[in-house]
Structure formats: structure tokens, C-alpha cells
Amino acid sequence: MTRSLALFLTLCLPCTLAGQDTPLPPLAFLGFEAGTRLTPAAHQVRALGGRGLRCDRSRRDRAVHECRGTVFAPGSGTAVELWLSAVDSAAGVLTLSGSITGAELEEWKRTLEGAYGVVGARVQGSQWMLQWVRQGRMLRLTWRIERGRTVASVSLIDGRVLDGWGRARAAAPAPPPAPPAAAGVSP
Length: 187
Hints:
With about 190 residues, the protein is an alpha+beta fold. The protein contains 4 helices and 10 strands, in the order αββαββββαββββα. It has helices spanning about 1-20, 40-45, 100-115, 160-170, and strands spanning about 30, 30-35, 55, 65-70, 80-85, 90-100, 120-125, 125-135, 135-145, 150-160. A hairpin with a 2-residue loop joins strand 9 (about 135-145) and strand 10 (about 150-160).
């Protein structure tokens, strides 16, 4: 009987849960969500003690903004650098990184696993990684020991934003070729 019940739950429970209309919580860290818009991201930077985002448009693609800022982790006050790449004002990639203590790393891991579930760590060389993926978005925590300090980063990636940008770039007409250089004249 127990074996039959286990088989039933294994086969039927995922179908039942998939049919529910309750959305999963968005992947987020320090109040930043994957795919966040620039204005809410700038507000969150200020809420975490930063001065705001400094953004520049890409010279290669005017739809892309490259932004930087610094925030301060709640509780510890540790400075955390923020970098984001936004397409049409939606963050495709947002990374928060800094040199943190072992206790802060444990808090980051505990917070993420509490929100999104326990996942197995992967190791590549001296770097460790935990990763969560859902609804076209990914959150990745990476860390390594560098000169006796723990260097950690959390990356929030919105695949839908990046896929939309890729489709738009593929559909855009190719830029005209550069004119040939005159003989004897170097660029």
C-alpha cells in the first residue's frame, strides 16, 4: 500500500501542482528582481543607501543601457557593487557582487534557499555556485576565496528580455558596410 501511494504521489502530485494558478515568487535578491525596470532598480539602489544608478547607452545598440551603482547590504552595511545591462529599460542581466564575510555568505545562501529551495552546489575550480531557474529567469550565487576573502556575486538573468533583444537584433536590417579606406591612409 505504501509503495502504491508513493508511486501515485510521484506521478500525480506534479500534475496537480502544475495545474494551480498560483504563480511562483519572482527570483529576487536584495529587493532586485530578474527583469526589473530601470526606474524601480534606481529606487532600490537609493533604498539600500546608494546614490542611484549611473547609466550609459551602448554605442553598438541604442536600446541597451549599461548601468552601475553601489548598494549597502542590509544588516552588515557591506558595500555591494551593482552592474546591470538593460534592454529597452528592462534588466536582462543584473549582478550584485562584493567581498563579504563567511557569515554574510551563509546569510545570502540561507535567504536564497529559504525563498527558492535547497539546490546542490556545483564546483568549478575554486568557484562554487548555487543556481535557481524558473519561468525563463535564472538566479545564480557564486563565490570563491580570493586572498583570504570571500568574493561573492548574485546574478539575476531574465531570458525573456534577452531572447526578445536577440529576436529584435536578428530582424533589424544590417548596418551598411564601412567605406573602404583610401590607399596609403591608415585609419
